[in-house]
Design goal:
Blueprint (H helix, E strand, L loop, with lengths): L1 H19 L4 E8 L7 H14 L4 E8 L8 H13 L7 E5 L3 H4 L12 H4 L4 H7 L10 E13 H6 L8 H17 L18 H9 L15 H17 L2 H4 L3 H9 L6 E5 L7 E5 L12 E8 L5 H14 L2 H7 L16 H4 L4 H6 L16 H16 L4 H12 L1 E2 L10 H18 L18 H16 L10 H28 L6 H8 L1 H19 L5 E5 L6 E6 L3 H27 L7 H26 L5 H30 L6 H19 L3 H13 L1 H7 L2 H10 L5
Parallel strand pairs: 1-2, 1-3, 8-10
Antiparallel strand pairs: 3-7, 4-5, 4-6, 4-7, 9-10
């Protein structure tokens, strides 16, 4: 019986431990470091101990990527994070990442404002929080566990030997380095390193940015604009330093060589590196500036954030971890006490901390400055690579500074044509041509009201000519949508102006072809009496299609040009959008087809002999122009100037050729010598034609139809539809 009781107790205890006692919540984190486990493992062990003591039932497991187990490239860790986050992976609950990634990955990280108190958050440097810990929508997506500060290492023994001070400006730096280097080489110290550039194919974007940063007006001033005179001066000084106290090979040496100079072989005068434990030979100071009081020192933050796709339970557990790691006590014990730098400024008034760290130095580089983490620039790994590549071309390959800065600017800049001629004269040239043509077309309207030109313009009434000219102007105005930033609205507006303008331009001629049909019919008679209703219905149909297209509008696609000018183009990505677009084209195309059929049928009518041929010529040019427009829109050009030039030329030629062949030709014909009697006879014939065609009574039309109906059977046998068209084509006078 006692044995049974014992077994029973064991089962109860096992059940209790298995199902009643709460299992630990395991939180997995991932990070990257150059220097082994660094301070991370100490923090992990400390938290797990803290969790055990306080019965939090949370266990932290950390995966640390290092050069030994992965790659020494920061970019690859960015790709790793990107792969995990873009798939909304729940493999890791916590990410420890570089502050530059806050904007890039921010939307995938939890807002720490929802999990940590304001008092806890406000202990951190506000500039760091707002600059490299927030997402695009200003969520707090990370807190800095620690920060790195770039500093100047000065060999105090050599400076004292030659009675030189630690330089505060780059001019002082260069002068001191040249002097000591010269003296040391006289003493056969030919291996002395005057300065390390740390600018090579794998690294260098931070030192470059830092050097340019040192040319600000003050420590609180923004980073100089990329193509500014200030940036040019900074880079020219950087190259001067390389040429006068260093060499290409020395400037490109990797970080491990610099670390050996810091710890082992201390035969260096000046070194640029991060604040780390170092040989007492060196004294640390802020990176010099172009003037006293300005420093180029930068910080890099190692942020800790929570995966936004994990369960709420895990988020709360992860928040406990972050809270522990970022308390002042933890930061002091595991960060500053191990000679790493915290982002809690209050610690640098602590005597214990300042006994281990150079608090005066840390305060001198405040307000902290950091690399711009704009998504299109240093928040983008590809930008880092090209940035250092192009600057290296200036430093080592003798490319001009303005050339490489333009290439860097082109990485993210979106080009478009404008009236500004800094990049191209295309915008100004196109606008001048546009303005001249627009003015000429508007002025040319006056010829409609000059008696001398009445005969030439009698093919259409004045109101129809004005409507047609208005359509030409509408099409011409679509050129303006190419200017400045390409937007969805401009893309949609361009389609509307071209397609609607084309219908406005052609509908008067379509109307005229129908009402002047060479044989009496009810349609022609009805439309002659309802001219504006006909025009309104045709235009309304096109307008409705354009309005429907706004429900699935054009999109804007960015074309990235290698070593060139990026630009944006209009594309239609949706099925519905393409359906409406092709319906609009079909509507315009149907008008052309109907007009061509009517032109063929009225081809030999004497009264409109030349007008018909000119109109046919214009329609075939229209077809070619519409085809070219769509081809240009669907080809991806590697030159924004070529793209915009071809589109502009197509639109302008389309407008001006229509105006020339349908309007200016008639003005020119009025200046040709002609017999006055003949002219009078022609006017009478045209007027007689108009009267005969349009002023018939319904009875005349009915008699005609009745006569036709009596012979229907015979005609159906004798004449097919095509034969009927050919019959109309062969007529030289209206019936």
């Amino acid at each position: 019986m006692n044995l049974n009781n014992t077994v029973f107790k064991i089962i109860i205890i096992a059940f209790f431990h298995t199902y009643i006692i709460k299992a630990k919540t395991v939180i997995k984190a991932i990070t990257y470091t150059y220097y082994g486990d660094s301070y991370y493992q100490g923090l992990v062990d400390a938290f797990n101990e803290y969790s055990e003591i306080n019965n939090l039932d949370i266990e932290l497991q950390l995966k640390v990527l290092t050069p030994e187990n992965s790659t020494s490239e920061v970019d690859d860790y960015g790709f790793t994070l990107d792969a995990l986050i873009s798939k909304k992976s729940k493999k890791y609950d916590i990410y420890i990442f570089y502050g530059a990634y806050s904007k890039k990955f921010g939307e995938h990280l939890a807002d720490l404002n929802n999990y940590l108190s304001k008092n806890h958050i406000n202990k951190f440097d506000n500039g760091i929080l707002s600059g490299i810990c927030t997402s695009l929508d200003n969520k707090l997506v990370g807190l800095p566990i620690a920060i790195d500060i770039s500093v100047l290492y000065s060999n105090i023994n050599l400076l004292n030997k030659y009675k030189k001070d630690i330089p505060k400006t780059w001019d002082e730096f260069l002068s001191t380095a040249k002097y000591i280097l010269y003296q040391e080489r006289k003493d056969n110290n030919t291996d002395l390193v005057a300065y390390n550039g740390l600018i090579n194919e794998n690294n260098g974007d931070v030192p470059i940015y830092e050097f340019i940063n040192s040319y600000r007006e003050s420590n609180s001033s923004p980073h100089p604009e990329l193509t500014s005179k200030t940036t040019i001066e900074a880079l020219e000084m950087l190259k001067k330093i390389k040429n006068e106290i260093s060499s290409d090979s020395e400037f490109q040496l990797a970080e491990d060589y610099t670390m050996r100079l810091i710890y082992v072989n201390t035969n260096a005068l000046f070194l640029r590196f991060w604040y780390v434990s170092h040989s007492p030979v060196y004294e640390l100071s802020p990176i010099p500036g172009y003037k006293d009081g300005v420093s180029g020192s930068l910080i890099v933050a190692n942020n800790i954030g929570i995966n936004n796709y994990i369960s709420e339970e895990n988020k709360l557990a992860a928040a406990e971890i972050i809270k522990f790691m970022t308390t002042m006590d933890t930061q002091k014990k595991y960060i500053t006490n191990k000679k790493y730098i915290s982002a809690i400024n209050e610690l640098y008034d602590d005597d214990d901390v300042c006994a281990l760290l150079n608090c005066d130095l840390i305060k001198k580089v405040q307000p902290f400055s950091f690399m711009n983490n704009n998504l299109n620039e240093f928040g983008n790994d590809a930008y880092h690579e090209k940035y250092r590549k192009y600057i290296s071309e200036f430093l080592y390959n003798n490319k001009s500074v303005t050339e490489v800065l333009k290439k860097i600017n082109d990485i993210t800049r979106i080009y478009s044509i404008s009236l500004n001629t800094d990049d191209s004269y295309l915008g100004l040239i196109v606008f001048i041509i546009f303005s001249v043509i627009m003015t000429v077309i508007m002025i040319s309207v006056i010829f409609l009201f000059i008696k001398k030109f009445y005969i030439s313009f009698m093919v259409l009434t004045k109101d129809l000519w004005i409507i047609s000219l208005l359509g030409t102007l509408i099409i011409l105005c679509s050129v303006l949508t190419l200017y400045d930033v390409t937007t969805i609205f401009k893309c949609q507006l361009r389609i509307f102006l071209i397609t609607f303008g084309y219908v406005v331009m052609k509908v008067p001629f379509l109307y005229n072809l129908i009402v002047r049909f060479p044989e009496k019919n009810k349609i022609s008679f009805y439309l002659e009496k309802h001219k504006y209703l006909f025009i309104f219905i045709i235009l309304l149909f096109n307008l409705v299609l354009n309005i429907l297209m706004t429900f699935s509008p054009s999109d804007v696609s960015e074309v990235n040009v290698l070593d060139g000018g990026n630009y944006k183009r209009c594309v239609i990505n949706t099925i519905l959008g393409n359906i409406f677009y092709y319906l609009i084209l079909f509507h315009d195309g149907l008008i052309i087809i109907i007009m061509l059929i009517l032109i063929y049928m009225e081809w030999n009518i004497k009264e409109t002999y030349y007008d018909i041929r000119l109109l046919a010529t214009v329609l075939f040019m229209d077809i070619l122009s519409i085809i070219l427009f769509n081809i240009i829109n669907n080809i991806i050009f590697n030159d924004y100037i070529a793209y915009n030039a071809l589109l502009s030329a197509n639109i302008i030629l389309f407008s001006i050729l229509n105006h020339i062949f349908t309007y200016f030709v008639k003005i020119g014909s009025s200046f040709l010598p002609r017999n006055s009697t003949t002219s009078l006879d022609l006017m009478k014939r045209v007027m007689q034609y108009k009267n005969d065609s349009f002023n018939n009574t319904w009875s005349i039309a009915s008699n005609t139809m009745t006569s036709e109906n009596s012979n229907t059977a015979t005609q159906n046998i004798r004449n097919s539809f095509i034969n009927k068209i050919v019959e109309y084509h062969n007529q030289n006078e209206s019936i």
